[in-house]
Amino acid sequence: MIKKVVSMAAIVMTAGIFAGCSTAKTTTKGNQATGNTIKIGVNMELSGAAAGYGQSQKQGIQLATSEINKNGGINVNGKKKKIQLIIRDNKTSTNTSASVAAQLTNNDKVVAIVGPATTNAGTAQIPNITKAAVPSVSPSATDPAYTLKKNGKVQPYVFRACYQNNFQGATAAKFMTNNLKAKRVAVYADNSSDYGIGLAKAFKKAYTGKVVDSQFFTAGDKDFNAVLTSFKSKKIDAIYAPGYYSELGLIIKQARQAGINVPIVGSDGMADPKLVQIAGDKNASKIYYTTPFSDSVAKANPTAVKFMNKYKAKYNQAAPTFSALAYDSVYMIKQAIESEKSADSVKIAAGLAKIKNFDGVTGKITMDKQHNPEKPIAIEELTNGKVSRSFSIK
């Protein structure tokens, strides 16, 4: 009798297993919006070392969302649905970023994610968003390999609103030669992330002058005097220093205090007001950095002008680069939903891949086959801590 019961139980369990397999096969991949709202997640560095970027991006995201909702929402096949933002802090931690992505996709059931801001945090979330089939648009992850698998094929759910490091680095090299006439430069880069390493490599590959010295610093370093003193003795015309504002602000300050008054050229990691706060207004002269959003260049773009005016009215400050990139990221998701006539996460990814001539505040954007935006680039110059000139680079 016991044997018969066990056998029957085994049969029931086996049937259940096959039923489960059958159900798994027919389960729809990805997340779908339900009701009158569309859930969009934000995986962002709101605290930690990159909080300056994350907070700026959060403001751009919230401004775009409030505008869209005020106008009725996103048009999904003839029906307007409002955005419900779900914002989570990844604390500038790769482990936390991966966990946040899992929460947003599995628990919150978002159909798209904006963020993270940094390449490392963005890369950490890729396995979880890919498994959930939910696309992410990073406003500022710039490493060339960010959107690619190790075999060189594109990551199907990974997109960005900014250009790649190799483009930034090559642009800086061209600017050094053509505009600054710098024949001898030193490179001082952040080696604690793919961001600084990649930019330095791209710059050195493209620069036609002589790199007289190349050194690295690490995130969290405070004293740069020894390296700067060695640069001073080598008769350099300029310094290329790709990295984040937290270290670059100190490098600028200590360079000027050491009597090094040559131009210092960096990347979009310098495009944050905190750079000048750390360096000091008087020290922040002859400072240049590549950026996807320049206030003076943007004045020729009606879409950008409207954004800048609305941002100023809402936050009582000029719109930073990272707010502009995040603002565009939200509207790119909106366009993808409307072009596909669906708030299904898989279809949103397909829509993002098809973006062409998108009218963004950071310029016209077309997504290439590797999910990188083709868009304009500019260089801003700081004088006494304020943007004094902008250069449109072609």
TrEMBL record:
The keyword Ligase does not apply. Residues 37-384 form the Leucine-binding protein domain. Belongs to the leucine-binding protein family. Keywords: Amino-acid transport, Signal, Transport. PROSITE patterns: PROKAR_LIPOPROTEIN (PS51257). SUPFAM superfamilies: Periplasmic binding protein-like I. The lineage of its organism: Bacteria, Bacillati, Bacillota, Bacilli, Lactobacillales. Residues 1-19 form the signal peptide. This is Leucine-, isoleucine-, valine-, threonine-, and alanine-binding protein. GO terms for biological process: amino acid transport. Pfam families: Peripla_BP_6 (PF13458). InterPro entries: BCAA_transport, Leu-bd, Leu_Ile_Val-bd, Peripla_BP_I. It comes from the Bacteria.
